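Q: Could you fold this chain for me?
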Amino acid sequence: MSTDLSFEAAEQLDLDDPLQQHRDAFIGSDDPALVAYLDGNSLGRPLRASAERVGSFIAEQWGGRLIRGWDENWLGLPAKIGDDLGRIMLGAAAGQCTIGDSTTVLLYKLCRAAVAARPGRNEIVIDTDNFPTDRYIVQGIAAECGLTLRWIRPAYDGGVTAEDLAAVIGEQTALVLLSQIAYRSGYLADMAGLTSIAHEHGALILWDLCHSAGVLPVELDASGADLAVGCSYKYLNGGPGAPAFCYVRSEHLETLKQPIQGWLGSVDPFQMGPDYRPAAGIRGFTSGTPPILGMTALRDMVELIDAVGIDAVRAKSVALTDYAVALYDGVLAPLGVELASPRDPARRGGHVTIDHPAFRTVTEQLWEQGIIPDFRNPDGIRLGLSPLSTSFTELWIGVDAIRAALGTNR
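A: Sure. Below is the predicted structure, expressed as structure tokens.
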């Protein structure tokens, strides 16, 4: 990364960026009131194509086909989009991914199924810095099933390492639940290495992909991962409350039994039979009616990433986060700001976190200026850099505004 931290250098980075042309595909990219959007890791911008697709779906599919749409197309969409996700960015062969429910509900389903599949084992391993939903879900399951939680306490500016996991896992471990990218620090975990440790001890491992799906290549099949869950409103730009996805490794599809037995997960939903019999394959992890309208916008980002290539997306992501670290070193570190993310891009996901005691107030001021990062307790600003919609000049403007706000608040 160049040592020239001028605005003109940022403009040149945009001119040299092979993906810069795709920014115009997003609604709001030309909005003068939205000066810099640096929160794409919380909620992605909508695509213009998605506005057209959703409107067309309402008018032509929902309005035109009505109930006939279920038989004609809609019932197959969760598995169809799941297969697309697997092929394009998750490293998963067909028949192992599906769309439906929220991240929280899917986490419960897979966690509960995993501990039931390891009878006689009474421990779940999770880290203290995992996303709150992940921690709350396993706390509830532990209370429900009489299990013990074994806690990993990772480094503040890092995440779970092989040494961390090896120190707490054992013969009583039924399940390990980890995030591939730590939601606060942005640390990128070694999926293959940590999965191997879990398997050496006979445990299943479930990966939370909420901050990695759509920003870097995930290798679920190659890593040996057992289970995974991820949301679709961050780097997949599915919109507020867009449904989550789950992955169940093929060898577990017939042995793991998910606990929420809804009618569309049964072998013959329209038979309306008296007893529940699970459908074969990934559809057995379905419960209720799939959120067709909610998954409609997701398809456009999946198609865009397919066209661009997930490796190119990752390359732009690394370039953006490298630039964020360079701006931190040159502009913010002298003001007492601390870097709370890994410096090594191989261990860093798509966002960079910086800390300062004044950042809660600074974030409020930035939002008033149309500069939108997000704040994370206790003192952190996350710079969430969505590769296909975030520019280098946006990032420069955001960091410069943080510098100016710190000067005002000193």
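A (continued): The two ends are 30 Å apart (CA to CA).
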